[in-house]
């Protein structure tokens, strides 16, 4: 029987590693027909690649002429290890398009909670999303106010990724323990903790756990 997390809402390095390894193993045959393209535990970070359909009716957002023509292979080859270009312009979308988003989950040695990192590029010219695009495309409306004001979810910032040392966006973990505590869950295994955390922090940027993984 798996031991529960000992110091909730914090999680230890050993518990985090265990949770990531178990989730990777259980996901191997359960993410087909979901938005998750892959999930991999490297021993340092949990990597999740997601394909997301974006529909935007904002007249000020327009997709580049080459974006809809970009094939999935070109998009899949981009990821969190690529540098973010902060000078990218906000494109306009007038129809549905697909984005490939690379998420990375690491453990914060300061806050003792997981940290969600992410990067996304689009189009044949491999442009990186700006922070403005992140809020416009990836963050659901219910989470906008909290993230922009560094509320209970923390806020979205950019920093060098602790594993790749490349610039990436991340959801600041300063308020994660408080947010988890507010849920008042019963005793959790490390994997249950990780899924709960994903449901809370991941949903802030539209990353949802497939129902196949929730049903154990």
UniProtKB/TrEMBL annotation:
It holds the Pfam family Autophagy_act_C. This is Ubiquitin-like-conjugating enzyme ATG10. It comes from Fonsecaea multimorphosa CBS 102226. One of its GO terms (biological process) is protein transport. InterPro entries: Atg3/Atg10. It comes from the Eukaryota. Keywords: Autophagy, Protein transport, Transferase, Transport, Ubl conjugation pathway. GO terms for molecular function: Atg12 conjugating enzyme activity. Belongs to the ATG10 family. One of its GO terms (cellular component) is cytosol.
């Amino acid at each position: 029987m798996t031991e529960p997390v000992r110091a909730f809402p914090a999680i230890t390095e050993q518990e985090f590693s265990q949770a990531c390894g178990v989730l990777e193993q259980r996901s191997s045959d359960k993410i087909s027909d979901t938005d998750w393209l892959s999930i991999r535990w490297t021993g340092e970070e949990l990597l999740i690649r997601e394909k997301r359909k974006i529909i935007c009716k904002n007249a000020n957002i327009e997709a580049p002429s080459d974006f809809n023509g970009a094939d999935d292979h070109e998009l899949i080859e981009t990821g969190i290890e690529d540098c973010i270009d902060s000078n990218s312009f906000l494109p306009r979308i007038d129809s549905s398009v697909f984005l490939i988003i690379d998420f990375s989950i690491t453990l914060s040695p300061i806050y003792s909670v997981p940290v969600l990192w992410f990067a996304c590029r689009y189009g044949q010219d491999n442009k990186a999303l700006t922070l403005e695009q992140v809020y416009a495309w990836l963050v659901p409306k219910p989470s906008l106010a909290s993230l922009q004001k560094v509320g209970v979810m923390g806020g979205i910032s950019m920093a060098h990724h602790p594993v790749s040392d490349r610039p990436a966006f991340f959801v600041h973990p300063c308020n994660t323990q408080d947010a988890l505590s507010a849920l008042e869950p019963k005793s959790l295994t490390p994997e249950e903790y990780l899924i709960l955390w994903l449901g809370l922090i991941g949903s802030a940027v539209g990353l949802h756990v497939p129902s196949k993984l929730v049903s154990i």
